[in-house]
Design goal:
This protein is of the alpha/beta class and about 210 residues long. The chain is built from ten helices and five strands, in the order βαβαβαβαβαααααα. α1 packs across α5.
């Protein structure tokens, strides 16, 4: 297997070093660059064409959704393998739909990392069997926007949450009871399979939810 250039992006030196050693063993003729934050990733991508980017999505100076989108805007043909501690259940499908080619946990052993790199470079999708099944089911359903599951009131609540309103402020704007707004938030998070407002913001960006403009 041959490749020309690979970018390893992670804010931890020891992680970059470990991935680099695996790459040097697997692809001895390749040129390997390293980036420690989102700005460096974009700077490298603007200068160089990469066959593969091994990318952590939790780095300084970056919004993971925007970072992936920008990388693919500059280098549409570049293959991206996400390598992260973030839950596959919460993130994998979203990033695959955004255009990445693989999603791998940092808890993976060296052998699996090698298999993931080889698969992605060969143009294959590398995710767990569970995620592949879910992606197939989504395709059959037309890859529905997850926000379409929400009721009108839940959508209104999402809109205000994304604009930084607190629950008491939303309660006042929508003229509803405190317990009701808390219930809306709980249902929203359950339906979208998220746990934090940050994830809600990232999901909204991923699906380009223009409806959320006030």
């Amino acid at each position: 297997m041959e490749t020309n250039r690979v970018l390893v992006a992670d804010d931890h030196t020891i992680v970059r070093s470990g991935i680099t050693l695996i790459l040097q063993d697997l692809l001895p003729s390749t040129v390997i660059d390293e980036a420690s934050n989102g700005n460096e990733v974009i700077s490298f991508v603007k200068k160089n064409g990469y066959n593969l980017i091994v990318l952590d999505i939790n780095m300084p100076e970056t919004d993971s959704i925007t970072l992936v989108t920008n990388v693919l805007a500059y280098r549409e043909q570049c293959k991206i393998l996400i390598y992260t501690m973030n839950s596959e259940e919460l993130y994998a499908k979203r990033f695959i739909k955004l255009g990445v080619h693989g999603y791998l946990s940092k808890e993976s052993q060296a052998g699996e990392i090698r298999r993931a790199i080889a698969a992605v470079l060969n143009g294959e999708l590398y995710v767990s069997k569970k995620v592949k099944k879910e992606l197939s089911e989504d395709l059959k359903r037309g890859m529905d926007n997850p926000f379409h599951q929400l009721s009108d009131r839940e959508m209104q609540t999402v809109k205000y949450l994304l604009h930084g309103y607190t629950l008491p402020e939303i309660k006042k704007v929508l003229n509803i009871h405190s317990s009701t707004i808390g219930t809306y938030k709980t249902r929203i998070f359950e339906k979208l399979k998220i746990k934090t407002l940050r994830e809600l913001n990232e999901l909204a960006k991923m699906y380009r939810m223009e409806i959320f403009k006030l």
